[in-house]
Design a protein that fits this description.
Blueprint lengths: L1 H40 L46 H23 L4 E16 L4 E14 L5 E12 L2 E14 L3 E13 L5 H6 L8 E14 L2 E14 L12 E2 L1
Antiparallel strand pairs: 1-2, 2-5, 3-4, 3-6, 6-7, 7-8
Length: 261
């Protein structure tokens, strides 16, 4: 009997303690909610002590002025993903490769190549006799082949030619602004030099008009200089050749130079 009463009394006391604990927990939860609301209502206050300094950015207000948005710099942690290199080596390699490739193309296309000038022989020979002065005049038309192996236009500025017979100058010719050679192409240039045999060379008149000789060949020495320019780069080509001429009659046949010097 006494044992049963003591058990019941202990159970009753345990129930009361649980009830009290429940009430205390609810009070604590209610107090925490009230504290959060109070903290939210409480404005930002910067407590400056003896060794503290007011933040120069917000001046203790906790807010950044709109006028300073583009002037301020945000600090990013070193571990931020945005600071991690993303295929940096690949991008650097591609950039270097493109620079080298473009540089190579520029050098390949703009590197100056030599202009090739070759003698293509005599085209036309017209002979005129001055019987009163025992003089022979020959109009000799020659052809030059000019090749441009560059990827840009070449300008042929001047063409100068001098013809000698027995070390005596018998004719000269100079042409300016001769022609323009397109890229990667070849062009022919014709020029005529007038040769005159007179004075100490009047014996040529006798030789050229001698009827007993069927072929009246004479040998002349010709020097030709071609000056060209491209991309501000001057170039000069010189040609020297010995040529056979038939001074007894006119000729319009194609003749290549027989002797070169």
């Amino acid at each position: 009997m006494g044992l049963q009463m003591s058990v019941r009394a202990s159970k009753g006391s345990q129930r009361k303690e649980r009830a009290l604990d429940g009430d205390d927990g609810e009070d604590l939860l209610g107090d925490s909610d009230d504290r959060q609301e109070d903290i939210a209502r409480f404005p930002y206050v910067e407590f400056t002590g003896k060794d503290s300094v007011t933040c120069p950015t917000c001046q203790g207000t906790g807010r950044i002025p709109k006028g300073q948005i583009n002037e301020l710099v945000a600090l990013i942690p070193y571990s931020d993903q945005r600071l991690q290199p993303q295929r940096t080596k690949l991008y650097v390699f591609i950039s270097i490769f493109l620079c080298l490739f473009i540089s190579g193309l520029v050098v390949f296309f703009l590197f100056p190549r030599s202009v090739v000038v070759s003698d293509d022989g005599i085209r036309v020979v017209i002979v005129t006799f001055d019987r009163n002065n025992s003089r022979v005049v020959i109009d000799m038309t020659s052809t030059l082949n000019i090749s441009n192996s560059n990827f840009y236009t070449v300008s042929v500025d001047t063409l100068t030619s001098q013809v000698q017979y027995m070390k005596t100058v018998i004719g000269t010719k100079q042409m300016n602004n001769v022609s323009v050679i397109p890229p990667l192409s070849e062009k022919q240039v014709n020029y005529t030099v007038q040769l005159e045999f007179r004075g100490a060379l009047n014996y040529v008149y006798t030789f050229c008009t001698m009827p007993s000789i069927k072929v009246h060949n004479i040998v002349v020495f010709m020097q030709t200089t071609v000056k060209s320019s491209y991309l501000g780069h001057p170039s000069q080509n010189s040609l020297e050749a010995y040529r056979y001429l038939d001074c007894g009659s006119n000729s319009t046949t194609y003749r290549r130079p027989s002797l070169n010097h």
